């Protein structure tokens, strides 16, 4: 009974969303507002997990919404809007990571003993910074966002085999740098 | 034989150690997952403002060539009209015998 109600409410939401999107295409700002309100948390959260910076995550999320609205005519099925927006956001995060790496150049070494003082999140941020953007994104989408291999492949626009090999490399590299950081902290 | 056993035991230990540290590293990573974010109160407003700005920029970019072309055409027409409308200022002198009459 509860399952039926849940399914019905999901179906209702999808109908609602299709109606809102139709109005968005005509430039209705109230509909855009409703769409933003529905998806903002998820989009900011994924950007924050990837970029490890909530302010930058909000910027990227705003850009993702703008791009999604601008290119809404390309979306064939309104039911796919959520995934479409998610993909845009992930690709924008990748661009940010790439430009960040161009700014900072090669890997920076973690400060000796710094792990004692800094929180887990900050340490994770530093460790993730040492991974190339593709590996970092794959690891975050799989381990933090809990996406399946197929979903990661779809979001990143690469074959599933590539996801598997990237994930293997990313996990191993993360393990090694994590071991180094924890040894330094001791 | 004992040597082989020692090697395989060391290999198993190393592999177990790798597995253990891998589990620890991954759980450390998962612990740092951001599950909830504080959305700034102006987020929706900012998206709409930026959307409006982008739309007006696109509109200007779309219409700019037509507006410039229309202005140039208007200028050309004005110049032409002015050239046609200005009365001729060269005074033709009457013939000499006409003065005597």
Write the SSE topology.
The complex is a heterodimer of chains A (186) and B (101).
Chain A lengths: L1 H24 L3 H23 L2 H17 L10 H24 L9 H4 L2 H10 L3 H12 L4 H8 L3 H26 L1
Helix pairs in contact in A: 1-2, 2-3, 2-4, 3-4, 7-9, 8-9
Chain B lengths: L1 H30 L11 H43 L10 H5 L1
Walk me through the structure.
Chain A has 186 residues and is mainly alpha-helical. Chain A folds into 2 domains: 105 residues, Orthogonal Bundle (Rna Polymerase Sigma Factor, Chain: A), CATH 1.10.1740.10; 79 residues, Winged helix-like DNA-binding domain superfamily/Winged helix DNA-binding domain (Arc Repressor Mutant, subunit A, Orthogonal Bundle). Chain A is built from 9 helices and no strands. Chain B has 101 residues and is an all-alpha fold. The longest helix of chain B is centred in the middle third of the chain and has 43 residues. At the A-B interface, helix 2, helix 3, helix 6, helix 7 and helix 9 of A face helix 1 and helix 2 of B.
Strand content of chain A: under 5%
Helices and strands of chain A, in order, run as: HHHHHHHHH
Q: Report the major sheet of chain B.
A: none
Mean pLDDT of chain A, to the nearest integer, reads: 84
So, the CATH homologous superfamily of the largest domain in chain A? RNA polymerase sigma factor, region 2, helix turn helix motif
Find the CATH topology of the largest domain in chain A.
Rna Polymerase Sigma Factor, Chain: A
User: Quaternary status of these chains?
Assistant: heterodimer
* Helix proportion of chain B: over 70%
Please mark out the parts of chain A with pLDDT under 50 across 5 or more consecutive residues, or reply none: 105-117
The best one-word shape of chain A is elongated
Give the helix level of chain A as a range of percent.
Answer: over 70%
The portion of residues forming beta strands of chain B comes to under 5%
What's the tally of helices of chain A? 9
Largest interface: A-B, 35 and 29 residues
Q: Treating each run of at least 4 consecutive H or I residues as one helix, how many helices of chain B?
A: 3
Order of helices and strands of chain B: HHH
Mean pLDDT of chain B: 84
């Amino acid at each position: 009974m509860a399952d039926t109600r849940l399914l019905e409410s999901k179906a209702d939401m999808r109908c609602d969303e299709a109606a809102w999107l139709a109005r968005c295409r005509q430039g209705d700002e109230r509909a855009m507002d409703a769409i933003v309100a529905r998806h903002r948390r998820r989009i900011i959260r994924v950007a924050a997990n990837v970029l490890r910076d909530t302010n930058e995550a909000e910027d990227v999320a705003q850009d993702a919404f703008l791009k999604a609205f601008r290119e809404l005519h390309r979306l064939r099925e309104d039911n796919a809007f959520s995934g479409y927006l998610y993909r845009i956001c992930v690709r924008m995060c990748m661009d940010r990571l790439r430009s960040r790496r161009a700014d900072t150049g090669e890997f920076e070494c973690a400060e000796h003993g710094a792990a004692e003082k800094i929180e887990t999140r900050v340490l994770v941020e530093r460790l993730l910074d040492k991974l190339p953007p593709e590996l970092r994104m794959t690891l975050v989408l799989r381990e933090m966002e809990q996406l399946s291999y197929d979903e990661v492949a779809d979001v990143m626009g690469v074959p599933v085999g590539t996801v598997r090999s990237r994930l293997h490399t990313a996990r191993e590299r993360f393990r090694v740098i994590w071991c180094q950081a924890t040894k330094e902290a001791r | 034989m004992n040597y082989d056993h020692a090697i395989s035991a060391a290999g198993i230990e190393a592999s177990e150690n790798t597995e253990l540290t891998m589990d620890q590293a991954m759980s450390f990573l998962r612990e740092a997952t951001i599950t909830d974010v504080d959305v700034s109160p102006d987020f929706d407003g900012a998206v709409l403002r930026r959307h409006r700005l982008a739309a007006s920029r696109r509109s200007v970019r779309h219409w700019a060539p037509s507006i410039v072309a229309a202005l140039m055409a208007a200028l050309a027409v004005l110049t032409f009209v002015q050239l046609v409308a200005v009365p001729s200022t060269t005074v033709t002198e009457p013939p000499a015998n006409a003065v005597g009459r």
